Task: inverse folding
């Protein structure tokens, strides 16, 4: 999928695990149109979904990642109350 999107594997891994795609994957310049095309418009066809579905999936992944991260910090604070994110 990273290759299909024209992304590095690590960038794609970050997208899949955290829902954060990074600044470089937020848009693409389309020479034929002579303008920048937003992520959801150029990536959705690669995933074979609508732009709305792609953005919803990203949001869900971000929320899950944040919940997991918060849970890890909570467990760490139980062991070491002075720990901070």
Result:
């Amino acid at each position: 999928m990273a290759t299909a999107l024209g992304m590095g594997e690590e960038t794609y891994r970050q997208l899949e695990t955290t829902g954060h795609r990074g600044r470089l994957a937020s848009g693409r310049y389309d020479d034929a149109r002579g303008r920048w095309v937003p992520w959801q418009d150029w990536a959705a066809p690669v995933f074979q979904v609508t732009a709305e579905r792609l953005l919803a999936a990203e949001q869900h992944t971000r929320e899950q990642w944040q919940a997991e991260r918060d849970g890890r910090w909570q467990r760490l604070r139980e062991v070491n109350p002075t720990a901070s994110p």
About this structure: Helices lie at 2-5, 9-18, 39-47, 51-79.
